[in-house]
Amino acid sequence: MKVLGILGSHRRDGVTAKLVDAVLQGVDPANKTEIIYLEDYDFKPDTYERKDPVLDELEGKLLESDVWIIAAPTYWRSLAGKMKDFFDCLRQRLVRFDKQGETHPDRFKNKHYLSITDCYTGTFENWVTGVTDQSLRTIDQVMSAAGVIKVNEIVMTNTWGIQELPAAKKSECLKRGQQLSSVQKRDDSTVKRYIQLFFMVAIMALAAMGIQVGLGLFPKTHFWLSYSSFVVIFFALLAGILHFATYVKHRRK
Ligand SMILES: Cc1cc2nc3c(=O)[nH]c(=O)nc-3n(C[C@H](O)[C@H](O)[C@H](O)COP(=O)(O)O)c2cc1C
Questions:
Q1: Which burial class, exposed, middle or buried, applies to 127 when counting CB atoms under 10 A from its CB (0-12, 13-18, 19+)?
Q2: What are phi and psi of 117, to 5 degrees?
Q3: In the chain, pLDDT over 70 holds for what percent of residues?
Q4: Residue 213's domain spans which residues?
Q5: Residue 185 has what pLDDT?
Q6: Does 76 sit in the ligand 1 pocket, CB within 6 Å?
Q7: Has residue 188 got a pLDDT over 80?
Q8: Once rounded to an integer, what is the mean pLDDT over residues 18-45?
Q9: Residue 190: what pLDDT?
Q10: How far is the CA of 56 from the centre of ligand 1 (A)?
Q11: Is the shortest distance between the CB of 15 and ligand 1 below 6 Å?
């Protein structure tokens, strides 16, 4: 497996670079790693007459990697421009267009990514106002269009004057790096986990409602209809909130 760090910051050795470095340090040494600094690449959009050779090179690196670490600071409450420009220039290659101009995942489908962003804003203010949300959302939108699967995200706040990563943030990055080696295995078990969750809900609801009937707190008429509708509705709500908490809602610290 190969893990590719893509750094889209103004600073080659800034906070964002340190976060990527720490994640890569955590990656199992049996895997290959590489980091590219987008400022080193003078890419331009493809034209009808000419495909951009710098984009060719970058596209090759993306294709040969299994996991991408997409790391860019939050500038003006949004994704840093160099990373956004990279996504914009790469659009024609990231997705396939049908006859109606709709986009579809193409050659990058089922690769994985971890997103990283950071900002000066304090943890509490970011938690309340979501300064870093738009940066993460932009990354997610592009990756989702390309069919690339999200593994996790890392957010660092309070970056003003930071020279070294705080110990807790460094260990979070190392842990995320270690987890990258098992991303393929985790995808395969997601459906299995939801099926397990359904049966857990069904068994617990049967036990709870059975006890209620035994205690005379629940009517016996239409028991199975009440029971099955409760299981289905409760499972749908629980699965929805779990999906929101683990995938949709962005980290803010
Ligand atoms: C052009 C620019 C715009 C920025 N805008 C914001 C912002 O809107 N909110 C914020 O909290 N920090 C903002 N920052 C601070 C950066 O997000 C912060 O310094 C980040 O940690 C820089 O990462 P780096 O060390 O990799 O360059 C901005 C920095 C720059 C250079």
A1: middle
A2: -145, 165
A3: 97
A4: 187-248
A5: 60
A6: yes
A7: no
A8: 97
A9: 74
A10: 30
A11: yes
Task: Return the number of other C-beta atoms located less than 10 Å from residue 54's C-beta.
Answer: 13
On whether both 56 and 17 belong to a single domain, the answer is yes
**Separation of CA 213 and ligand 1 centre (Å):** 60
Q: Judge if the beta carbon of residue 119 lies within 6 A of ligand 1.
A: yes
Q: Which residue has the tokens 């790693």?
A: 33
Q: Report which ligand 1 atom has the smallest distance to the Cα of 74.
A: 17
Asked whether residue 112 falls in the same domain as residue 223, the answer is no
> Which of 7, 70, 74 best tests ligand 1's pocket when mutated (most atoms within 8 Å of CB)?
74
- Looking at the structure, tell me whether residues 21 and 98 fall in a common domain: yes
Q: Which of 183, 218, 234 is the last residue of a domain?
A: 183
Of 5, 66, 12, give the one whose Cα is nearest residue 36: 5
Do both 147 and 198 map to the same domain? no
User: Please, what is the Cα angle at 40 between 66 and 55, to 5 degrees?
Assistant: 55
Residue 236 reports pLDDT greater than 80: yes
Whether residues 109 and 128 share a domain: the answer is: yes
Cα 80 to ligand 1 centre (Å): 8
Whether residue 155 is contained in a domain is answered as: yes
> Is the CB of residue 59 less than 8 Å from the CB of residue 87?
no
Minimum-distance ligand 1 atom for the alpha carbon of 118: 21
| Together in a domain, 207 and 145 | no
Mark which of 130, 159, 183 sits at the end of a domain: 183
- 142 and 172 share a domain? yes
74 lines ligand 1 (CB under 6 A): yes
Q: What is the pLDDT of residues 148-181, one digit of tens each?
A: 999 999 999 999 999 999 999 999 999 999 999 8
With vertex at residue 242, the alpha carbon angle to CA 236 and CA 244, rounded to the nearest 5 degrees, is 100
